[in-house]
Design a protein that fits this description.
The protein has about 110 residues and is an alpha+beta fold. It is built from 4 helices and 2 strands, in the order αββααα.
Length: about 110
């Protein structure tokens, strides 16, 4: 996706969520300690992030390059940060929807 297309998409999502109960955040992976030598550890991502929007980085200390970090972000064996990623995802969803549940329902969890 071209940078201008991503900026337009982010602006559209922000427009939908502004002033409503619809929340959004983009959780993305960054290279950590497993990055190939010469790579800017912790500073490179799979895509260029536009200014604005809600971006939450999650380090992958096992991935050697940006593509591996992106492709394996939801694979626990290949992403040591998977538990943090899922916990942060759940926290955002609860933040946006928690008011819809009673305390007993929230404590009971799904199913």
């Amino acid at each position: 996706m071209r940078p201008e297309e991503l900026r337009a998409r982010v602006a559209g999502v922000e427009g939908v969520s502004a002033g409503s109960e619809v929340g959004w955040v983009n959780l993305y992976t960054k290279l950590g300690r497993g990055a190939e030598p010469g790579t800017a550890t912790g500073g490179r991502t799979f895509c260029n992030l536009p200014k604005g929007g809600k971006w939450k980085e999650e380090l992958n200390d096992k991935a050697t390059d940006e593509v591996a970090a992106h492709m394996n972000m939801f694979s626990p064996p290949h992403n040591p940060g998977y538990e943090n990623l899922t916990r942060h995802s759940a926290e955002y969803v609860l933040k946006w929807t928690g008011h819809l549940f009673t305390d007993a329902e929230a404590e009971a969890g799904p199913g």
